[in-house]
Amino acid sequence: MGSSIVCADIFIKGKMEKREIREEVAKAIEKATRSLKSEISTKNKELSKKNEELRSMSQELVVLKTQIKELRAQLSKNSSNSSKPPSSDRLRKPNPKSLRKRGERKTGGQVGHLGSTLEQHQPQILLRCTQGLTLHCEHCGKKTTHG
């Protein structure tokens, strides 16, 4: 773009010989080439800095993802899926995971069932306390002392 402006300026100056025009155009092209090379060099340096930043950020991202994974694993542990004691479960209790299916009947005594109650029985040997701490066996009549 800059070289076309230079060339237009050369032609406007007046009538020049072909050799002079070629020299002026060559100088303008050389100047533009140096300028572009300098700009390319600057952009390459910037690009390499950005690539280095990207590499370091990628490494940091890998480390952070690993830490997140480890922390999530720690949070998901409780006393039922690790060797942690139940006291470390805090307020969050895991849902019970019973394999039994719920029955159709309600809990407790069922309608229509005649219950059976154990009856009280009398002990075979009855000790009776008479005066003081002396006891008599009703079965054999032998005196026993308490103690």
Would you kindly provide a written description of the structure presented here, covering whatever features stand out?
With 147 residues, the chain is mainly alpha-helical. It is 48% helix and 7% strand. It has 2 helices and 3 strands, in the order H-H-E-E-E. It has helices at residues 2-13, 18-76, and strands at 127-129, 134-137, 143-145. The protein has a 3-stranded antiparallel beta sheet, with no helix packed on it. A hairpin with a 4-residue loop joins strand 1 and strand 2 (134-137). It is rod-shaped, with a radius of gyration of 52 Å. The mean pLDDT is 80.
Show the helix and strand layout.
Elements: H1 2-13, H2 18-76, E1 127-129, E2 134-137, E3 143-145
Helix pairs in contact: 1-2
